[in-house]
Amino acid sequence: METIVEINRLTKSYGSFTAVDHVSFAIEPNKIYGLLGRNGAGKTTIMHMITAQLFPTGGELRVFGEAPYENDRVLRQICFIKESQKYPDTFRVNDVLYTAEALYPNWDREFAKRLVADFNLPLKRRMKKLSRGMLSSVGIIIGLASRAPLTIFDEPYLGLDAVARNIFYERLMEDYTEHPRTVILSTHLIDEVSKLLEHVIVINKGRILLDEEADSLRGRAYTVSGPAAKIDSYAAGKTVIHQESLAGSRAVTIFERLGVSDQKRAEALGLQFTSVTIQQLIVFLTNGASAKKEGTA
Ligand SMILES: Nc1ncnc2c1ncn2[C@@H]1O[C@H](COP(=O)(O)OP(=O)(O)OP(=O)(O)O)[C@@H](O)[C@H]1O
Questions:
Q1: Which SMART domains would you find in this protein's record (predicted)?
Q2: Atom of ligand 1 nearest to the CA of 188
Q3: Residue 39: CB within 6 Å of ligand 1?
Q4: CA 154, CA 196: separation in Å to the nearest integer?
Q5: What's the complex ipTM?
Q6: pTM over 0.80
């Protein structure tokens, strides 16, 4: 099957400020992607270019093999759910769902109905009378029931409580298993979604920082802790992305896969290992301080 999105040196500048800077990546079919990064990293700008809401300043972009701009063949295959989606004031929840049904060729009305019940949505209530969380659940229902070949959720759950977020994750997984499609999830709740993600793309200051399968990312770094002097000796020459010290003991996170010889060495020194979650890894890599080799200037 063809690549869903191909981006090559994509750039978007606003005057002298470059929000997206020569970014290249590919989105393959039937996978769930996480597009992650700190506030202002450039994620929404990238999603707006993929969905033809913004023109790039440079680079190449193909979606379903074609340029997306004013291209109905491409755009009808995309459902983009944004954090602050606006709806006409007079619309009730029902009206929004009818409109979505007309827009998305793969819309599943029965599935939408079940989701409305799951999220306790009042179908007759006007959109402007919905609570913040209810508004988010309307977006989530559209994103799921559209079954669009490319579904993009940009921070879809403002105001949504933990129970409702969990319903979203569960329904997404169940439905995705039955109806595989390509999903891009952009969120700051990385721990919550990390089980769902098959591939992770991290953007930092407009550039690609990581583009990796989620499983591979899980072993990309490890934390080792023990007496400070032993840790310093162990970490010398390694790429340390985070460290914490307390009363003579130290924990450092090393951006490397743990090899057998290092593991033996650390065990001989009596040091302890803990794994690093995808969220921790991204926080450590994007917290402003760049990774540095221990024992180097
Ligand atoms: N129209 C614009 N004019 C100037 N700068 C802009 C414009 N739109 C976005 N930016 C800047 O581009 C950068 C990237 O913004 P973007 O919304 O893509 O970030 P993001 O990764 O989605 O952030 P968040 O996680 O906070 O939503 C930010 O510094 C933002 O201020």
A1: AAA
A2: 25
A3: yes
A4: 15
A5: 0.97
A6: yes
